[in-house]
């Protein structure tokens, strides 16, 4: 301990007279340290969030733009309609192999016009384009037979390797052992790009389109699985909301306190914490094996997700029923309403904003859930066709957004990873929209008593 | 009559009943609503309810029972003199159903008359050919027994369908008539209708119980089937996991439990310190502005779907860890062979669990009474000493509950481990090795083209049963601790 008087003598006027002893200094340092730990922990959490969002956005935005090759294709009548009578059956008889030479010729023409020379054989040039280009041309001709003989401007998808090259994913070195594209192709692409023939533009087909097979990542889109998710959410909404609200009304307003009610309550809080994969097992065993509902159908997915979201909805509905003050019920009962009337005419409307908020959050949770969908077969196939109608939307096999993302992440071609990240952006946009709606509902309509 | 039209018919009867009942009540009250016991619409609802509910219940029961009865009646015909096993009988019956529906299509398209379909004999006609003509492809040749069974099946189904229509219609009309007969001015319609609504509410509450029963039954039945094919001791004490769908698999759960626990421990090692210190900072130190920004931000982590974390582990964290610990990596050590490893999945799962720990801990720290802090500060303790000596001990049970809940999440988490942890089941101490978990193996055993009756597929149910029991125990423990603690300061 130092002598207080001795050290105080040199003090500036107005400063504190207290000097800190060692122990206080240690305690204050410990205090600072402790606070720093807290800040560090919070920072770590926020840095993780930032890293997650950064990697989603930096990896995923690429999926929304796609490389297109613009070509003027001469729809030669000799090839497409040999008989010359414009008979739709004859035109349909020409396979995509028949269309390939036309595209090839158009590409060669384009290169000659642009002064591009290459040692690549003409029939290998097509590797620059997506293998779906011929099909695109064929369906155009089938729809517009009167254009045969004309020269039409087309915008074809480039192959995924060319697209990857423009996005920096594919380099000349990585193509050294690639059978789908050679570095020499990239020289052509470079020159065509300078001429504006090859260019990136916004890819609407990714948002609206169907999934494509393993070899055509450039054509894969998330649209069809979005429809699958939509039908699943419809099932969840139509089942989970009424059942959840009815169950909460019973438990909160009518149930006597006895062992049965206790059992139901313990049950619900435990169901809320059961791993989602177990619900998938339930769906597989009960809905598919036992009830023989169709596999991979959004209906089954919706049923499984309904059971999974039900506890969440019940818990939040009960909380909002509980927040309606008893005086409301007493007033209704006092003017002669039955208990049922008091609940349905007065308590329920007042609790509705809270119930809807909870439901939307439950739906958002269900929309992003993947594990149960894997077990009821919503992965492992190419969801290539949109459903034919409203009923078909429920029962025909489809994928769902998170299942589609998982499917893409499993495929070998890195071009699909970009699709998966892009799909996540779409999924998160939906979740964000739902959460914002929930927050607005809560802010605007929830009453504090 | 198809079920859809039947439902419409019943709905129409009960809709008409609603108006008749209401009108009758008003007539009996001499046109004045004051003479009635209940509001007029209750009398209407009473009639509609009695018309609709019994008819619909009868229809549901009938639709469940009819296939069972018909199968039992037709199976002996299809089997003939042979005594097939359950699996063979299943195949036989699905043949019968396919032929029967083929005959239905043929009759509907006018390719043969209903009498023809009943008289067909395999000896006289090529049935397969005739069905093929109307676009019904039958794989194998149709035996006489199958055809006979299919014809019997058609007759019984048609008869059943007519009986169902008649029964449902009679029940709906009888219910409506009974309710209308009961309708007088003094009849307590509201009470009856409210009993109906109340049963509906109770039924909804029971869905939660039914879900649990469904889960438990599905797990138990299939697990028992599995243990008939594979010894329980071999499953619970086996140290080798190598399923092969050709048979001769070793299905020991221990490597999977080890992988699950290892990944969960790493996840908790990330989430618990970060979560608890953030909760302490947010509850005790942070200014309202910081709190109102940081708390929702942390909770965003809880709202992100697990598939996103899975992809993050597979494509971002895995490769970056390899870049640090892998061959030719940043540290120059060659510890990590591939991106999928225990540490990858554990780290990402830890990030996911941060908000689960921090939110609940935050609530619990806030629930500690201010008077306890004031007392400690008044004795001269610094803020951190108060937190360490007073607040945390008081909140400890709740925090333990929060950590247990997070642990149960970690054990049951699927997507992150499916995508980030690898597929190799091994008992290893190295966190840079790929390992696998119970949940990941449930997915891989059930998503292949496996036959559902093979032990390799059924093992998934035994795994799920184990998982269900572990998480259930953890949840019950955690909820009991949290609840007990909450009551302490209320």
Indicate the topology.
The complex is a heterodimer of chains A (449) and B (490).
Chain A: H1 4-8, H2 22-60, E1 65-74, H3 77-80, H4 88-93, H5 96-114, H6 133-143, E2 151-157, H7 160-166, H8 183-194, E3 198-202, H9 204-208, H10 223-254, H11 259-271, H12 276-290, H13 298-322, H14 326-334, H15 339-368, H16 371-375, H17 390-395, H18 401-410, H19 415-445
Antiparallel strand pairs in A: 1-2, 1-3
Helix pairs in contact in A: 2-19, 5-6, 10-13, 10-15, 12-13, 13-15, 14-15, 15-19, 18-19
Chain B: H1 3-28, H2 40-79, H3 86-108, H4 114-119, H5 127-133, H6 144-182, H7 189-229, H8 232-237, E1 241-242, E2 250-251, H9 254-285, H10 288-303, H11 306-325, H12 342-367, H13 370-378, H14 383-412, H15 415-420, H16 438-447, H17 455-489
Antiparallel strand pairs in B: 1-2
Helix pairs in contact in B: 1-2, 1-6, 2-3, 2-6, 2-7, 3-6, 7-17, 9-12, 9-14, 10-12, 11-12, 12-14, 13-14, 14-17, 16-17
Q: How would you describe this structure to a colleague?
A:
The complex is a heterodimer of chains A (449) and B (490). Chain A has a three-stranded antiparallel beta sheet. In chain A, 42% of the residues are buried. Chain A contains 19 helices and three strands. Chain A is mostly helical. Chain B has 17 helices and two strands. The two termini of chain B are 61 Å apart. Helices cover 76% and strands 1% of the residues of chain B. At the A-B interface, helix 2, helix 10, helix 11, helix 12 and helix 13 of A face helix 7, helix 9, helix 10, helix 11 and helix 12 of B.
Task: Describe the structure concisely.
The complex is a heterodimer of chains A (449) and B (490). With 449 residues, chain A is mostly helical. Chain A has helices at residues 4-8, 22-60, 77-80, 88-93, 96-114, 133-143, 160-166, 183-194, 204-208, 223-254, 259-271, 276-290, 298-322, 326-334, 339-368, 371-375, 390-395, 401-410, 415-445; strands at residues 65-74, 151-157, 198-202.
């Amino acid at each position: 301990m130092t002598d207080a008087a001795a050290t105080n003598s040199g003090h500036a006027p107005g400063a504190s007279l207290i000097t800190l002893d060692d122990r206080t200094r240690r305690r204050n340092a410990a205090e600072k340290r402790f606070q720093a730990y807290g800040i560090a922990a919070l920072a770590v959490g926020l840095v993780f969030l930032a890293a997650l969002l950064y990697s989603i956005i930096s990896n995923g935005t690429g999926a929304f733009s796609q490389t297109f090759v613009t070509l003027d294709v001469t729809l030669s009548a000799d090839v497409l309609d040999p008989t010359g009578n414009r008979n739709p059956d004859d035109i349909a008889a020409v396979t995509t192999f028949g269309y390939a030479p036309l595209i090839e010729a158009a590409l060669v023409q384009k290169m000659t016009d642009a002064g591009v020379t290459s040692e690549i054989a003409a029939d290998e040039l097509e590797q620059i384009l997506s293998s779906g280009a011929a099909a695109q041309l064929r369906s155009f001709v089938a729809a517009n037979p009167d254009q045969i003989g004309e020269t039409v401007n087309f915008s074809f998808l480039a192959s995924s390797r060319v697209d990857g090259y423009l996005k920096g994913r594919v380099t000349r070195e990585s193509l050294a052992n690639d059978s789908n594209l050679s570095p020499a192709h990239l020289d052509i692409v470079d020159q065509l790009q300078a001429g504006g023939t090859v260019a990136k533009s916004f890819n609407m087909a990714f948002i609206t389109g169907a999934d494509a097979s393993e070899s055509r990542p450039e054509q894969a889109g998330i649209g069809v699985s979005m429809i699958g998710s939509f039908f699943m959410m419809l099932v969840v909404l139509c089942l989970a909301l009424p059942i959840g609200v009815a169950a909460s009304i019973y438990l909160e307003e009518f149930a006597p306190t006895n062992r049965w009610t206790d059992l139901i309550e313990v049950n619900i809080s435990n169901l809320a914490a059961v791993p989602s994969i177990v619900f998938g097992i339930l769906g597989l065993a009960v809905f598919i094996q036992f009830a023989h509902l169709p596999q991979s159908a959004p209906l089954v997915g919706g049923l499984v997700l309904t059971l999974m979201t039900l506890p969440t909805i019940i818990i939040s509905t009960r909380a909002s029923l509980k927040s309606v003050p008893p005086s409301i019920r007493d007033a209704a009962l006092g003017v002669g309403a039955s208990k049922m009337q008091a609940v349905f005419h007065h308590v329920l409307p007042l609790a509705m904003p809270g119930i809807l908020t909870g439901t939307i959050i439950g739906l958002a949770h269900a929309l992003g859930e993947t594990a149960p969908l894997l077990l009821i077969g919503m992965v492992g196939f190419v969801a290539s066709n949109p459903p034919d109608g409203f009923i078909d939307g429920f029962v025909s096999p489809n994928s769902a957004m998170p299942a589609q993302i998982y499917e893409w992440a499993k495929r070998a071609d890195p071009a699909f990873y970009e699709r998966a990240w892009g799909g996540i952006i779409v999924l998160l946009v939906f979740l964000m929209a739902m959460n914002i709606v929930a927050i607005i509902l809560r802010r605007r309509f929830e009453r504090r008593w | 009559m198809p079920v859809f039209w039947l439902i419409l018919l019943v709905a129409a009867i009960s809709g008409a009943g609603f108006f008749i009942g209401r009108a009758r009540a008003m007539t009996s009250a001499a046109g004045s609503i004051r003479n009635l016991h209940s509001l007029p619409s209750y009398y209407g609802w009473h009639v509609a309810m009695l018309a609709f509910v019994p008819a619909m219940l009868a229809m549901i029961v009938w639709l469940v029972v009819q296939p069972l009865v018909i199968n039992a009646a037709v199976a002996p015909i299809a089997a003939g003199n042979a005594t097939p096993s359950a699996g063979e009988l299943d195949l036989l019956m699905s043949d019968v159903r396919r032929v029967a529906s083929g005959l239905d299509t043929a009759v509907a398209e006018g390719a043969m008359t209903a009498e023809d379909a009943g008289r067909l004999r395999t000896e006289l006609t090529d049935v397969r050919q005739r069905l093929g003509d109307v676009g019904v492809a039958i794989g194998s040749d149709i035996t006489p027994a199958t055809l006979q069974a299919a014809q019997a099946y058609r007759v019984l189904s048609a008869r059943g369908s007519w009986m169902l229509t008649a029964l449902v219609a009679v029940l709906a009309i009888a219910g409506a008539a009974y309710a209308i007969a009961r309708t007088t001015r003094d009849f307590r319609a509201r009470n009856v209708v409210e009993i109906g609504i109340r049963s509906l509410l109770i039924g909804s509450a029971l869905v939660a119980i039914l879900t649990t029963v469904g889960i438990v039954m599905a797990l138990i039945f299939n697990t028992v089937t599995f243990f008939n094919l594979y010894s329980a001791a071999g499953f619970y004490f086996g140290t080798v996991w190598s399923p092969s769908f050709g048979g001769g698999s070793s299905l020991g759960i221990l490597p999977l439990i080890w992988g699950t626990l290892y990944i969960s421990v790493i996840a908790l090692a990330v989430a618990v310190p970060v979560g608890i210190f953030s909760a302490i900072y947010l509850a005790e130190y942070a200014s309202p502005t910081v709190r109102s920004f940081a708390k929702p931000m942390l909770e965003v982590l809880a709202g992100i779907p697990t598939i996103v974390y899975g992809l993050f582990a597979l494509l971002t964290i895995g490769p970056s860890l390899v870049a640090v610990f892998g061959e030719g990596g940043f540290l120059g050590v060659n510890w990590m062979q591939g991106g999928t490893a225990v540490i990858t999945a554990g780290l990402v799962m830890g990030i996911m669990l941060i908000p689960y720990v921090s939110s609940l801990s935050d609530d619990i720290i806030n629930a500690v009474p201010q008077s306890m802090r004031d007392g400690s500060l008044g004795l001269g303790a610094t803020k951190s000493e108060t937190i360490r000596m007073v607040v945390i001990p008081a909140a400890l049970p709740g925090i333990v509950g929060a950590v247990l809940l997070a642990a149960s999440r970690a054990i049951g988490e699927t997507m992150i481990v499916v995508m980030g942890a690898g597929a190799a089941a091994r008992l290893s101490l190295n966190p840079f090795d790929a390992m696998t978990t119970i949940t990941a193996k449930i997915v891989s055993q059930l998503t292949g083209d496996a036959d559902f009756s093979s032990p390799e597929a059924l093992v998934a149910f035994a795994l799920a049963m184990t998982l269900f029991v572990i998480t259930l125990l953890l949840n019950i423990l955690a909820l009991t601790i949290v609840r007990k603690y909450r009551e302490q300061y209320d």
